[in-house]
Amino acid sequence: MMKRVMMFGVLCLTAVIACNAAMAGEGRGGGWRLRAAEGFRANAPPEIQEIMDKRAAGQQLDEAEREKLGNYFLERGARMRGRIRENAPEDVRAIMEKRARGEELTEEEQGRLQGYVRERMAQRFGNRARRQAPQPPFLAPVEANPRDLALLRIAKIKHDEGDHEEAVSALATVIAESPQPEVLAVAHLATARIYKTDLALPDKAAAEFLLVRGPMGNQAIREMIEMYEQAGEPEQGIEVLKNAASEATEKPDKVYFLMHAAEACRRAGQIDAAIETLQEVVELLSYAEALEMKDQFGPPEEPPRSPFRRR
What we know:
The chain has helices at about 1-5, 10-25, 30-40, 45-55, 65-85, 90-100, 105-130, 145-160, 165-175, 180-200, 200-210, 215-230, 235-245, 250-265, 270-285, 285-290. The protein has 16 helices and no strands. The protein has about 300 residues and is mainly α. It has 2 domains: about 1-130, no CATH class; about 145-295, Serine Threonine Protein Phosphatase 5, Tetratricopeptide repeat (Alpha Horseshoe), CATH 1.25.40. It is flat and about 75 Å long. Mean pLDDT is about 75; it is low at about 1-35. The protein starts with a helix and ends in a 19-residue tail after the last helix. α2 (about 10-25) packs across α7 (about 105-130), α3 (about 30-40) packs across α7 and α14 packs antiparallel against α15 (about 270-285). The relative contact order is 0.07.
């Protein structure tokens, strides 16, 4: 029976690895595989958990226990395959259907399919970890003049007391009057967090996240992307960023939003869309223009710095 599980196919390969890690106690040191393993055990029925614990302790399973565990893996794998298939891009679904018909896959097709499954698993369990992660502080530390500082502290007190509308009002005064760009960034970010977490107004939260300038810009965009991911609507976050790019009047701003939109596509498993969005950046800039922005962008894995001009 366990052999059947291991041969279940590439669509369940990652799930089986995670389950084996859960039973064997492997994966120490973190990572999505460990979170997947923990998730499989936590969601299993008590009798299955007992068998997993027995296996993890190095005890021999009898035939009935092995069959029960194998059936559980097959059931979980089938459900996971259905979810993965439902959300797969068209080219991946075509590969899945080809395999379901018993046709042999090319090496390229196997690699594409395995990569997609890993991406989906990493996204699923990575998002779960982000949901459970500690929330950032309501106000980022900033050097402010006494008037702005007083208003920021009023906003925090109101927020802590649960008077979120009054907190937003105090922050709006800061945004309307403060001459300090760093203070404006803190106020926009705090306002976005209230709309996101306390008032459940994602559209207003997104608008505020997009207005955060300077060093905190990347943090704001990341929180906005995660907001839509946690709601199960990553495509909405991508659309917001692409709309911001299309409405931007300056190329550095447009490039900034496109780069983040590409990253949001990648996180959502939309690899082709990510590449197409990055290609927009290539076509948008001449080499001379790109060189003028080189200090704004680091290595490929680093997000761009916010290009917004200080007012």
